[in-house]
Specification:
Number of strands: 3
CATH architecture of the largest domain: Orthogonal Bundle
Oligomer: single chain
Mean pLDDT: 89
Shape: globular
Structural class: mainly alpha
CATH class of the largest domain: Mainly Alpha
Number of helices: 9
Strand content: 5-15%
Helix content: 40-55%
Length: 212
Amino acid sequence: MMANPNYASLKELARAKRAQYGVTTEALNLIVVRKIYSDEGIRIDNWEFPRTIRAAYMSDDADPSVAINKTLPREPRLFSLVHELKHHYVDRPKIEQGQIKCGDYNENQTIEIGAEVFAAEFIYPETEFLERLQLLNIEPGQCSPEDVVRLKRECRACVSYQFLRKRLVRLGFAMPHAFDKIQFQKLEEQLYGPPIYKQKWFQRRRGRAQAK
């Protein structure tokens, strides 16, 4: 993927925008992204989209906005919003002229992959990712499902298991399709126990609070 020089320039742009807004990986969350949107003058609208559509960037009469699928969980929502920032920074003139349509992946594959590259680098720079793998002693070609869970818990980035899987495969730390049948959330609960909101004591406390 990264053989395309345009993708390399998008990674550089992502790092520049991180620096411009003082973004750090461990502190990046939806609040930070919404502040960036506000500073850029981009409106966020929650829409009822089909599951296959996450978000879309629109800009008419110098009024940019992003329609985001309101059902998205936190990590995919963050990634989608940063993905759309790439369209704002790079593709806005063509979008305003009707030359491209965000989300039409088949017709604009290079454009959409570029947005994924930008978002991945903005959220979790590859150099930081590789440093974390080294700290966890994860070797190329040797990453196990348990390593992925450990990485997710310790990396301090707001990323999904899908994000980690794709990058681990692309960088050669796991074979393609190695994790296709792995249910990572279930594996995480097996290794570390259920999250607080699933534990009985928390559910009982929440039930008492709602009854008041």
